[in-house]
Amino acid sequence: MIVMDAVLETYDAEGFTAWPIAEPPDDRILALSGGLTPAEVGTAMAVIVAYAGFPAEPVADLHLTLDRHLVEAECLIAPGGVRVTDTVTGARILPGCCCGLESWREWADVLHGESPWLGHGPDTDLEHTGEAVRLRQEPSHQVELPLADLPGLLSDVHAGLRGFLELVGAWAGETCPRAAGRLVAVLDESFHVTGSLDLG
């Protein structure tokens, strides 16, 4: 069975102290969904804020920080993207370096014979084989992804991101209430969460 989910790399959360965060996973990859704990949402937000270079302390001023820095940055980006897992073989294709969560919708281009940017280090080779795409990633991971399954898999990714965004709203309401609405809107716009998913 093939599973796809949106993920963040959590290296940028190391040493973060502005709010409580969860212990990073052993592989430093956090899957985003509506099933995260508040501490895991805190980890995701720590990654996003730290990666953007935003000062997060004092957290009460986060609403001012967002507005000030977004004028310069225009949008947020975050290390991560889409992870593809074959639950039978255990093979996993991870987003490579310089791949960002903000470009997750590029996976829909695979349906039209194109290849999304998958990053490097590890490098990933995507080969169209007719009714499927073959993904190979160093050193030895390989996943066969049937094209007929891709729309449903991307819909799962989309649902996971929408669930995550709902959790961010609740988390921000407790952690930085003056920034909550602005934060949700910025994440939605930057990571293309709530808009319809065009798979045509």
Task: Please characterize this protein's 3D structure.
- The protein is an alpha+beta fold and 200 residues long.
- It has one domain (1-181).
- 32% of the residues lie in helices and 18% in strands.
- The protein has helices at 38-52, 62-73, 150-175, 180-191; strands at 2-9, 29-31, 80-86, 92-93, 124-128, 132-137, 141-146.
- A hairpin with a 3-residue loop joins strand 6 (132-137) and strand 7 (141-146).
- Helix 1 (38-52) crosses helix 3 (150-175).
- It is globular.
- It starts with a strand and ends in a 9-residue tail after the last helix.
- The mean pLDDT is 94.
- Which structural class matches the secondary elements? alpha+beta
Helix amount: 25-40%
- The backbone outline, from C-alpha atoms, is globular
Give the strand tally. Answer: 7
Given as residue ranges, the uncertain stretches (5+ residues, pLDDT < 50) are none
Q: How many structural domains can be distinguished in the coordinates?
A: 1
Strand neighbour order, sheet with most strands? 2-1-3-4
What is the N-to-C order of secondary-structure elements (H for helix, E for strand)?
A: EEHHEEEEEHH
- The DSSP helix count reads 4
Main pleated sheet? 4 strands, antiparallel
Which value, in Å, is the CA radius of gyration?
Answer: 17 Å
Distance between the termini: 24 Å
Strand content: 15-25%
Mean pLDDT: 94
Key phrases:
4 helices, single chain, 200 residues, alpha+beta, 3-stranded antiparallel β-sheet
Tell me the layout of helices and strands.
Blueprint: E1 2-9, E2 29-31, H1 38-52, H2 62-73, E3 80-86, E4 92-93, E5 124-128, E6 132-137, E7 141-146, H3 150-175, H4 180-191
